[in-house]
Automatic annotation (TrEMBL):
<dbReference type="GO" id="GO:0035435">
    <property type="term" value="P:phosphate ion transmembrane transport"/>
</dbReference>
<feature type="transmembrane region" description="Helical">
    <location>
        <begin position="350"/>
        <end position="370"/>
    </location>
</feature>
<dbReference type="InterPro" id="IPR051337">
    <property type="entry name" value="OPA_Antiporter"/>
</dbReference>
<dbReference type="InterPro" id="IPR036259">
    <property type="entry name" value="MFS_trans_sf"/>
</dbReference>
<dbReference type="GO" id="GO:0061513">
    <property type="term" value="F:glucose 6-phosphate:phosphate antiporter activity"/>
</dbReference>
<feature type="domain" description="Major facilitator superfamily (MFS) profile">
    <location>
        <begin position="6"/>
        <end position="401"/>
    </location>
</feature>
<feature type="transmembrane region" description="Helical">
    <location>
        <begin position="160"/>
        <end position="180"/>
    </location>
</feature>
<keyword id="KW-0812">Transmembrane</keyword>
<feature type="transmembrane region" description="Helical">
    <location>
        <begin position="71"/>
        <end position="89"/>
    </location>
</feature>
<dbReference type="InterPro" id="IPR011701">
    <property type="entry name" value="MFS"/>
</dbReference>
<feature type="transmembrane region" description="Helical">
    <location>
        <begin position="214"/>
        <end position="236"/>
    </location>
</feature>
<feature type="transmembrane region" description="Helical">
    <location>
        <begin position="376"/>
        <end position="395"/>
    </location>
</feature>
<dbReference type="InterPro" id="IPR020846">
    <property type="entry name" value="MFS_dom"/>
</dbReference>
<dbReference type="GO" id="GO:0005886">
    <property type="term" value="C:plasma membrane"/>
</dbReference>
<feature type="transmembrane region" description="Helical">
    <location>
        <begin position="101"/>
        <end position="121"/>
    </location>
</feature>
<feature type="transmembrane region" description="Helical">
    <location>
        <begin position="133"/>
        <end position="154"/>
    </location>
</feature>
<feature type="transmembrane region" description="Helical">
    <location>
        <begin position="281"/>
        <end position="299"/>
    </location>
</feature>
Length: 424
């Protein structure tokens, strides 16, 4: 029972992080009015958060390997609560951007720290499924932003909504400090303090492992479309270009979470039973994302609701699909540097997301604002990322397979020569 208590407490902190991360996605138009931001400025507003998040992944992984999950989750939660409190209080655009940067830094500490708990508290056979549950259950934070947060925003206003998110973040930190421990022994297993040269050498070693690079490209190709949709441009697209009400657009984010949960359970079971087919599954997810967006963007006018629901369902599968990248990082790296490897992998999807968000903001601004045609052209920037990552996955998959073959051959030879020989 104790492992589930530790994991669920860390998961609550991640749920709050996702709420904080996606809160601007449902309040984007309110932010534009409050801060007088143009589409390009508004995208920069969110991109700054993602830039900080992505840039902090490797330092966060190194700190995680040094200090452990409990400390990192607590510090991350305090940073995010501070960022949300600042947003509730300010009407200044520079101050608001600084607050989102602070939130991005805290967010960077949270997810990989919760994932780091899993190998220490669960058996090997349960790790892939619990990892999937971490990713998909964390998306309940998106439900919180789409329903109660949006309801408070519409009913009580900007400050009340962001103060409620602040209070929830403080509660999560208190529970983490009370209930979470890094390992069953209660201490961080790796307390070695490395110098700069050793740190850089370790980073290089982790990156050169083909499983780390494969995980990076998997995360990049599968996660960015749904992240861009939920974090920034989904609700404005559904309301301004597709003619939905804000309440209906918010409910689509709930559909996204339900689809991610269902897909995550299936993907977790699949990857546990068929680990050698993980990359093939990911390539199918990327292809399905590109296909459904093509079907929607080719229409001359707004899409029927059923097709938009199908769009949200299919791109949401990319969320649990990206968790396969962390599974590759885990299988190719020892536990002492797992935080660093997971940080590198987690950079992939968010690096792609920030590039796409910024590019979409520029396209929408150049096309004259929030119109159907502007959004249609803006979403097309996704195809470049899909093409790049599919090629990178195919290349690194071959290298990873060769590495696995070499490891298995070495183990066979070692076992063979260590067997006792009977004398003839």
């Amino acid at each position: 029972m104790r492992p589930w208590i530790v994991w669920s407490t860390g998961l609550l902190a991640y749920v709050v992080a996702v709420l904080d991360r996606t809160s601007l996605g449902v309040s984007g138009l309110d932010a534009a009015n409050r801060f007088g931001a143009s589409p390009s400025t508004l995208s920069t507003f969110v991109v700054l958060q993602v830039v900080v998040y992505a840039a902090a992944q490797v330092p966060a992984g190194l700190l995680l390997d040094r200090f452990g999950s409990r400390a990192m989750i607590a510090v991350g939660g305090l940073l995010m609560a501070g960022g949300q409190f600042a947003l509730a209080a300010t009407e200044s655009l520079p101050s608001a951007m600084a607050a989102r940067a602070l939130l991005g830094l805290g967010d960077a500490f949270t997810f990989i720290s919760v994932l780091r708990l899993v190998p220490y508290w669960f058996s090997e056979r349960r790790i892939p499924l619990v990892n999937q549950l971490t990713g998909i259950c964390g998306q309940f934070g998106q439900v919180l932003s789409a329903l109660p947060f949006l309801a408070i925003l519409l009913g009580r206003g900007w400050s009340a909504a962001y103060l409620s998110a602040t209070a929830l973040g403080v509660l999560a930190v208190v529970l983490v400090l009370a209930l979470v421990r890094d390992t069953p022994a209660g201490r961080v297993p790796n307390l070695h303090s490395a110098g700069v040269r050793e740190t850089l050498s370790s980073l290089n070693t982790v990156w050169l492992r083909p499983g780390t690079r494969l995980g990076f490209f998997i995360h990049m190709g599968t996660q960015f479309s749904v992240t861009v949709f939920a974090l920034m441009w989904g609700v404005p697209y559904l309301t301004a270009a597709q003619g939905m009400s804000r309440e209906a657009a918010g409910s689509m984010l709930v559909v996204s979470v339900a689809a991610a949960i269902s897909a995550g359970i299936v993907i977790g079971i699949w990857t546990s039973r068929y680990p050698h087919r993980r990359a093939r599954l990911v390539l199918g997810i990327i292809a399905s994302n590109a296909a459904i967006w093509t079907a929607v963007l080719m229409l001359p006018g707004p899409a029927p609701v059923w097709l938009l629901v199908l769009l949200v369902v299919i791109i949401s599968i990319g969320g649990p699909g990206s968790m396969v990248g962390f599974d590759f990082a885990r299988t190719f790296n020892p536990g002492s540097i797992l935080g660093t490897a997971q940080g590198i992998v987690n950079m992939g999807g968010f690096l792609a997301s920030l590039l796409v968000m910024q590019a979409m903001g520029a396209v929408i601004g150049a096309a004259g604002g929030y119109s159907f045609d502007a959004f249609r052209w803006a979403w097309c920037v996704q195809y470049a990322v899909w093409a790049f990552t599919a090629g990178a996955i195919l290349i690194t998959r071959r290298k990873a397979r060769r590495t696995i073959g070499e490891i298995e051959e070495s183990r066979y030879l070692l076992e063979y020569f260590e067997q006792p020989r009977r004398e003839d």
